[in-house]
Amino acid sequence: MAEKTSQGPRGPAALNPLALRWKKISPRLVPVMALLTALIMGMLFMMLLTLIRTGGVDIGAELNKTGTAYSALLEGSVGVVINQMMTADSFNEARAFLASGTFGTRDLNRAARSATEAAEIGLANLRQFAQVLAAYPDLTDEQITAFGETVPEVNQIGEARFRTLIPLINGLNSIDRAEASALVTAIVDAGLVTAEARTALETAVPAAAEFSDSDLLSGLQVIQSEGIVRAGRLATSIDELAALGLQADSAEAEALAAMARADVTKVRPAIEFAATLDSLNITDPAALSTQLRLVRDLYDEELLTAENAIDGLNNELPGVLENNQVILRPNNQIFLSRSPAPAAVLMGGAQTPDDPVDDRPEAVFLRVGNQALVFLPANLENWLTRTIPFVIAGLAVALGFKAGVFNIGAEGQLYAGGTLAAWVGFSPLFSGLPPFIHIPLVIVAGIVGGLLWGAIPGLLKAYTGAHEVINTIMLNFIAILLVDWLIKSENPLLIGDPTASTPRTPFIVDGATLPNFDTIPFGLMLVAGLALALWGWWSNRERIKAAPGLAARPVIMGVLVVIGGVFLAWANVRGALHIGLLIMFAAVWLTDWFLERTTPGFELRTVGSNPDAAKYAGMNVRLNVVLALALGGALAGLAGAIEVSGVQLNMQPFFFGGIGFDAIAVALLARSNPRAMIPAGLLWGALLSGAGLMQTRANISIDLVKIIQALIIMFIAADAIIRYLWRVPEASDDEKQAALFASKGWGG
Known about the structure:
By secondary structure, the protein is mostly helical. The chain is built from 33 helices and six strands.
């Protein structure tokens, strides 16, 4: 049979060279396209939420909001962001305002607070409030505050209807409160006005005789819902409004209510401040507030010294900008470098080091015109540290997928490995061991703990037929609660620290903690690079003999290892990035080597593809099922040991917080390919690392990140959608086979 080919409407010959090129490379980009599509869908979700909340959407504003959100996501993970440089034009509003009087450094903060309050209330609202107060100058703050409560409620009831109830309300408030409540409750609870109830009510409140039964019942229902006393206050406020010639639904009454909601004690001074801004043609009080605070920061840094702030801006600021680099950051922060060079090292906030070239910078920037490309090493450090457990635990899940089983128990295996590693790390039995023995022992303990915990569902599935999904889920709960009991147990005391204020184990000793990158000697990095280059040359010596140009590849790899090590040591500004990152790369390489280059790995993959064929070929299916879950557990235990010995340095109840479940998503993103686990884990770590900053900067829910994560997985799992949207050719049989996961596991 002729091979089936993918053809366009006019056949392959009709495709232009660009289309042919796209057809060739696009299948490799499906995960990237899934990510881009999910980000676009995230933007649409933000627009939809705005539409639901406000009833309209400003496309330009929403695009700007999306850009802010995704920029914050990038900054919070990779640590790269573009910020504005401070220029003379950065103070236009402040210059216009400060020129109107004499302002010292103490005045700057007060003016900035006034500008912030004016921005929060809104200049348009303040102008309207000023007109209302000018028309009714005798209104007190207490009256306006009362109107703030009265107007919305009366409008909800209906002013005309409420006015008819005022005689009844006043009558009820003139008698004993308990008696009034009993009379109202008797009629409302009965749902009708009996002759006896009417007589009793009219005796106490003669105004009730003016109401029909239906009007009386509905009126009393309103009074009961508001409360008799509160209804009386509303009636008083309505009378006060009437005395002013206002109705509750008038624009003036609504303005008074809005004034109360904004806090009338702040509104009156804000009105005066807004009048000043109008006289100076300043229309953006928020920008003015930011600029005034920046001026104060420059004074705090002693870059401006003039007693009058306007003199500092006019006379000193040009020299400051000529001799210093100042980057404007969100939330009124600045990065400052006392160097005019276009690229420099910065300290955070408005602090400046004595030596501008610091070994542990808070930020590094490159100036391009009036903008700066800023790199924040601490964010990169945090991102890489968070990524490590996702990648290794993802390998644990992927290994099960390869064998046709669904290892959903990585969470419990993390706890088993992490707890055993913590015990080896702090136990007196191992105290005094040198670090080069104690650290590997902690790592091996984590691997053993995870392996044993993973072998349990493997044995149950292999020899009893019990479904691994059910077993691993249940073992997750057992492991989590077992660790909780071991730590919290006091009689007997097991592994908990009795001196700790919160439940946890003792801290592992210094000799059992994973070294940080900044503690690795440069000579060791050189040795590692040289060893990699020699190994690459030796393993490819036959190919290099045939093509000598290939000899450059291992050399380049060795050089990149040295450069990468130096960079990570330099970027380790908080001392958080540990050599678990190297263990992660080793775990990825070993897993890939095991699956692709060894006989047990081949048997494991064969069992996953077709257990019947594997059994016919003489392979031990049961052994491979146990092996897959045990090795997966070992990898998850390794991730737990790295987190305990490299990050937390102790074990706590509920410490891992869903890493094992996130690992399932990472494995799906990588399509169970060990080499693809690193970019998948980096993506997952980036989404989690940048989520908080994205929420703060763009004022959106952090749940949006979870929505994007779900969309990415959905689009990768159902890649036919992505292929249709991006015009990618249909997946080949090999690609379809690679996309399958755990099919045998679900089938039991």
